[in-house]
Design a protein that fits this description.
By secondary structure, the chain is α/β, with parallel strands linked by helices. 27% of the residues lie in helices and 32% in strands. Strands 7-1-4-3-2-6-5-8 form an eight-stranded mixed β-sheet, with no helix packed on it. It is flat and about 80 Å long.
Length: 154
């Protein structure tokens, strides 16, 4: 009887450990915090999306307002088309500005929305016209090094 009880408790702890790992993975992946109940879709074009991925967060003033649903290359414009699903509770003006931002120095990338002042609100299927692409760290370092190389020696 002692051996069976010990095996049962070991099994309970193993199942609890696996459950904890699943919850941690959802938390790290930022997948457990957004419930898409009623949403509308908008899209935007970016010349460089950096490391932005589908299911990335969309935030406005630090509040999660949506998720990226799809990223494709538009072969006519040769820009990345990012489709976003925004919660219907949050309505944004048509002149909203979309930035690709990074949380922390080398953290995950997300889209930050800065509302404009237009009276008209975005509707399902419309395009965000004002965008700013991701800041790529390697490009910044390269520009810095080339600018230092062009300076005259002292």
């Amino acid at each position: 009887m002692g051996r069976t009880t010990m095996d049962l408790w070991v099994g309970v702890f193993v199942v609890a450990g696996i459950g904890a790992l699943v919850m941690l993975a959802l938390k790290v992946g930022n997948l457990g915090t957004y419930n898409v109940s009623e949403a509308y879709q908008v899209h935007a074009y970016f010349s460089n999306i950096g490391g932005l991925k589908p299911k990335a967060s969309i935030k406005s003033a630090g509040v999660l307002v949506g998720r990226v649903t799809d990223i494709t290359l538009d072969t006519e414009r040769y820009e990345a088309k990012v489709v976003m699903s925004l919660d219907k509770r949050y309505q944004f003006p048509k002149d909203t500005f979309a930035n690709i931002l990074t949380s922390g120095l080398l953290g995950e990338q997300y889209i930050g929305l800065m509302p404009g002042g237009d009276d008209q609100m975005l509707k399902n299927g419309e395009q965000l016209k004002m965008t700013q692409s991701a800041v790529v760290l390697e490009d910044m370092i390269g520009k810095f090094l080339y600018s230092k190389a062009d300076e005259p020696a002292k």
